[in-house]
Amino acid sequence: MVALFNKAMVAALLVSTAVSSPLGTSSGRVSIKQVENPNYNFVGALSVKKTYLKFGKPVPDWLEEAVANLTSSTDIVGRATGSATTTPIDSLDDAYITPVSIGTPAQVLNLDFDTGSSDLWVFSSETPSSQINGQTIYTPSKSSTSKKLSGSTWSISYGDGSSSSGDVYTDTVTIGGLTVTGQAVELAKTVSSSFTSDSANDGLVGLAFDTLNTVSPTAQKTFFTNAIPNLDSPVFTADLGYHAAGTYNFGYIDDSAYTGSITYTDVDTSQGFWGFTSTGYSVGSGSFSSTSISGIADTGTTLLYLPAAVVKAYYAQISGSSNSASAGGYIFPCSATLPSFTFGVGSAKITIPGEYMDFGAISTGSSSCFGGIQSSADIGVNIFGDVALKAAFVVFEGSDSPRLGWASK
């Protein structure tokens, strides 16, 4: 099995359990539609770089060079067939954002739901203007229910030495019809440039486990943890769409959203993530390899990152594909028909259609496209990101013995 994460880094993140007691109110079950990020242009190398940074890994020189070369143009790159780029990339597949109301009266921000972190942080009135690039900001002084959490700060460090950090307030937070009063809202005083560049994303809603929350001196509970007492069932579900808006549900499972049955697997919470072990994989119509792969289910990561041998086996089935340092990862001819990729969960198998692996031409007019499955070798964690999650209906069960449920759809 592959280790989930760098233990030293995790130890630095682990802090004591929160002692505050926010209250959940309103409906015990809600459904929230995502919205499109209209300003998001996908660059494969940049997506890989952001994953390195998120998991605290130094970015290799070859990847930095690829990002610099491929982001020097302002052209919008689209999914392509052959060498002609004709369709703008569908940002819903690459940057999922959801409207969240904070404060009284409500200030609506579009936030990224991230099951790979545990901080609810936002661009704010404390963020320097030089680090704001069109984002909507939260201003606590405009909310009658905001309260500064005296002496508390938060900070998240990234692999390039940058960080996001600031002060902490509590306020009323509503997602769909689900409201939590006294929710910790972390205001950014400093924002990493990787977030500043995404003008439509106003922050994150962390949905991993509370032990990953970075507020000091006392860690704060996630929105989901605080909402559980008021939910009909201690679950939320992710039904991400392909070329379409997805849906998050809290407090219930929509039986019409999947086919067959839901297969559950135990979650390894020891490192704060929704960790689980896949039972193996297959490529296209090939035989199933019963190779255990430990990883995490992470809605905050776009691509699928797996062991190098697994990724190599996938691209071996695509003529003309290669691992390109100048492109930032595996690429393939845009004219290629991509094989599906299947991974096991318990006794079930989830199949990712081949077209989900196509993330468009690496640059305008190029006949090479960027692949949706990349190597996790240098990142240190296998990540079942949005590429995998949108192929399934996924249940995140926050019971005393947490589980992940997977179903086809």
TrEMBL record:
<dbReference type="InterPro" id="IPR033121">
    <property type="entry name" value="PEPTIDASE_A1"/>
</dbReference>
<feature type="domain" description="Peptidase A1">
    <location>
        <begin position="96"/>
        <end position="407"/>
    </location>
</feature>
<comment type="similarity">
    <text>Belongs to the peptidase A1 family.</text>
</comment>
<dbReference type="InterPro" id="IPR021109">
    <property type="entry name" value="Peptidase_aspartic_dom_sf"/>
</dbReference>
<dbReference type="InterPro" id="IPR034163">
    <property type="entry name" value="Aspergillopepsin-like_cat_dom"/>
</dbReference>
<keyword id="KW-0064">Aspartyl protease</keyword>
<dbReference type="GO" id="GO:0004190">
    <property type="term" value="F:aspartic-type endopeptidase activity"/>
</dbReference>
<keyword id="KW-0732">Signal</keyword>
<dbReference type="InterPro" id="IPR001461">
    <property type="entry name" value="Aspartic_peptidase_A1"/>
</dbReference>
<dbReference type="InterPro" id="IPR001969">
    <property type="entry name" value="Aspartic_peptidase_AS"/>
</dbReference>
<feature type="signal peptide">
    <location>
        <begin position="1"/>
        <end position="20"/>
    </location>
</feature>
<feature type="active site">
    <location>
        <position position="298"/>
    </location>
</feature>
<keyword id="KW-0378">Hydrolase</keyword>
<protein>
    <recommendedName>
        <fullName>Peptidase A1 domain-containing protein</fullName>
    </recommendedName>
</protein>
<dbReference type="Pfam" id="PF00026">
    <property type="entry name" value="Asp"/>
</dbReference>
<feature type="active site">
    <location>
        <position position="114"/>
    </location>
</feature>
<keyword id="KW-0645">Protease</keyword>
<dbReference type="GO" id="GO:0006508">
    <property type="term" value="P:proteolysis"/>
</dbReference>
